[in-house]
Amino acid sequence: MAEALMVTSPVAGRVVAMRDVPDPVFAESMVGPGLAVDPDPAAGTSAVAPCAGVVVKLHPHAFVLLAPSGDAQAAEGSGRGVLVHLGIDTVQLEGEGFALLAAEGDTVEAGQELVRWSPAAVADGGRSPLVPVVALDLGTDGLTEIAAPGTVVRAGDPLFRLG
């Protein structure tokens, strides 16, 4: 059986329920369950890895990590996917205002800086700076919230546990 995976906040800010994210794909958990963080613009411009794993997708505005399943019997390349999306509709920025600090295929540690960005610039451009953190390919019963909506977190503080 797979070990539980702790998923931490990639940014400092206030925890927001996924249903309150102003995008139906996230709000209705179409991609998967999770939580979002309303970033504190005074807390810096780093987005860090919410868990250890391999960077399987990396875009300026979003990344996916594949965390090891922890199951000794699991096939190589299997694991649990975690999506971090930096702001809502930020794909429209075509990378402007984002600096990548990792590459697809990199193995990263929890808390490692992966992207630099400006939540304030995203908000100034009329977009939501909310950061959804999503457990991919997981039913809602596989996720345990650690940080309740409204909680103020620092980057690296626990958000939820998988498994």
Layout of strands and helices, then pairs:
Layout lengths: L4 E4 L4 E5 L6 H4 L6 E6 L6 E3 L4 E7 L2 E6 L12 E6 L13 E2 L6 E2 L4 E4 L2 H6 L6 E5 L7 E3 L6 E2 L4 E5 L1
Antiparallel strand pairs: 1-14, 2-3, 2-13, 3-11, 4-10, 5-6, 5-9, 6-7, 7-11, 8-10, 12-14
Protein name: PTS glucose transporter subunit IIA
Keywords: Kinase, Phosphotransferase system, Sugar transport, Transferase, Transport
GO molecular function, one term: kinase activity
Count all strands and give the number: 14
Q: Unreliable runs, pLDDT <50, ≥5 residues?
A: 72-76
Could you report the average pLDDT, rounded to the nearest whole number? 90
Q: Per the principal axes of the C-alpha atoms, what is the gross shape?
A: globular
Spatial order of strands in the largest sheet: 9-5-6-7-11-3-2-13
CATH topology: Glucose Permease (Domain IIA)
Main beta-sheet strand count, sense and barrel state? 8 strands, antiparallel
Q: What is the C-alpha radius of gyration, as a whole number of Å? A: 15 Å
CATH class: Mainly Beta
Whole-number total of structural domains: 1
Helix content: under 10%
- Strand residue percentage: 35-45%
CATH architecture name: Distorted Sandwich
Determine the structural class based on helices, strands and strand pairing: mainly beta
CATH superfamily annotation: Glucose Permease (Domain IIA)
Compute the separation of the termini in Å: 9 Å
Characterization of this structure:
One of its GO terms (biological process) is phosphoenolpyruvate-dependent sugar phosphotransferase system. Its main location: cytoplasm. This protein is mainly β and 163 residues long. It contains two helices and 14 strands. The model is unreliable at 72-76 (pLDDT under 50). It has an eight-stranded antiparallel beta sheet, with no helix packed on it. It has a three-stranded antiparallel beta sheet with strand order 1-14-12, with no helix packed on it. A three-stranded antiparallel beta sheet has the order 4-10-8, with no helix packed on it. The chain has one domain (5-149): Distorted Sandwich (Glucose Permease (Domain IIA)). 6% of the residues lie in helices and 37% in strands.
